[in-house]
Amino acid sequence: MIMNGAESLVATLVREGVDICFANPGTSEMHFLAALDNPKMRSVLCLFEGVATGAADGWYRMRDRPASTLLHLGPGLANGLANIHNARRASSGMVNIIGEHSSAHLKYDPPLKSDIEGLARPLSQWVRRVDSSQSIAWDAASAVAQASGHPGKIATLILPGDASWQDAGEPVVPPSSERKPPPVPDHGRIEAVVQVLKSGEPAMMILGGKATRGPALVAAGRIAAATGCRLATQFFSSRIERGAGRTPLERIPYAVAQAENFLAGIRHIITVETTEPIAFFSYPDKPSLLKKDDTVVHSLIKADEDSAIGLGMLADALGIRNVAPVIQPPIDTAAPTGALTPLSIAQALSAAIPENGIIVDESLTTGRETMSHTMGAKPHDLINNMGGSIGYGTPVATGAALACPDRRVICIVGDGSAMYTIQSLWTQAREGLNITTVIFANNQYAILKAEYANMGAGTPGAQAMAMIDIDRPTIDWLAMAGSMGVPAVRVEDAGALHAEILRCNATPGPSLIEVKLY
């Protein structure tokens, strides 16, 4: 069968294991759009490019294999860059297909011409412009190989229109040997950490990447049980398997002073697929590095290494392979009543998290005090924003729900963050996704009020406060959700919040709960 370039591209993506495309197409991509009729490729329409790239991030976090996106020229890529940034920070693999004018048309400087490579390179580990329709299969396979490595990478393939519509010829792809398994850690580092753990000095192992789940987490739990080493994560993690029956991980606090106190008694920090703790921002007269000066940092497993094998090697070197891991016991949380507070919200969520649920957390203010109280809930996965660019929560929840259609996704998000990518609700309704979006509506960027004080910027005046409050007019979340096909309710007390989450858990499709905070 003779294929054009676009058909060759889609066929290659599918053959290499990329079978979903989050798309926001334009004129230059019409041949690619036609090629998406391939029955082995699922295409999902997103009404904003930041939703497409965020959904691809959520897909990877739950599947550990990349999705593709289709974005329209440089401006379309630019619209998606914030969530590409978040995906890169989370080490999520992604294959971005960026449409481009035909090669002969570029010399006329059409209005949508831009430096796509210049936009893509700062946030992509791999960028290539297709030279001809005959090279597309090779280019696409190379992009998937890059995105599928460990850690995952952002691969961006620029697709000129003429390469899409011209005959592709016989597809030629690079050898599969390009995909290599991640390396194992150096034995010298293993032995050095063995000595640290046998020394009796206070130690903390900080887990990141894929070490926060699966066999790596179990091995870390054994090490903690045998040695007394504390286990922690950075404040934000890509994905954590947590809840009753799993190894619990402490969370390093966000605020600098609290983080310093948390780390104060630690003599050794052992890092696994992450770095030593640093402050999220630079504050006047506060440190960037959060550990004490006499704390020694040991890099046990690097970001590109296999943490499951590495932590297993450490367990063997300690002679504890058969030790039972530290396990979080279940905590039966009663359904709360009364006013909405960070604690009562946590209790409502903890008591309602379904078995094997997925929690996507972008509750920048409320969530800081909430998520630590859900450790003993039913087993679930927790996803955080690694990159800090807000507007990630509802798109990532969309991708996670598509990746795991049999699991309920609960996305908790502040009203300020939700407005960045609220178009996600439309895609959730169109695809019938099992997502409960919980919006904490306090009509302000409350986190920025706290940061105003942290930065020592003085007392904010009326104009400064007007840039932080998001009332006048008040956003009508029920009308917003209803307009995009998502049923919505408003709750004003903790008992109602708990009851509505339970109701949504049992109701197929998307729902929205507005939590009215005063």
Tell me the number of strands: 18
Helix content: 25-40%
Q: What fraction of residues sit in β-strands?
A: 15-25%
Number of helices: 19
CATH-assigned homologous superfamily of the largest domain: Thiamin diphosphate (ThDP)-binding fold, Pyr/PP domains
Distance between the termini: 63 Å
Keywords: Thiamine pyrophosphate
Domain Thiamine pyrophosphate enzyme TPP-binding: 378-515
Biased composition (Basic and acidic residues): 177-187
Pfam family, one: TPP_enzyme_N
Structure explained in plain terms:
The protein is of the alpha/beta class and 518 residues long. It folds into three domains: 5-178, Thiamin diphosphate (ThDP)-binding fold, Pyr/PP domains (Rossmann fold, 3-Layer(aba) Sandwich); 187-318, Rossmann fold (3-Layer(aba) Sandwich), CATH 3.40.50; 342-516, Rossmann fold, CATH 3.40.50.970. It has 19 helices and 18 strands. The strands form three sheets. Strands 9-14-13-15-16-18-17 form a seven-stranded mixed sheet, with helices on both faces. Strands 2-1-3-4-6-5 form a six-stranded parallel sheet, sandwiched between helices. Helix 3 runs parallel beside helix 4, helix 9 (214-227) runs parallel beside helix 11 (307-318) and helix 12 (342-352) runs parallel beside helix 19 (494-505). The radius of gyration is 24 Å and the shape is globular. It starts with a helix and ends with a strand.
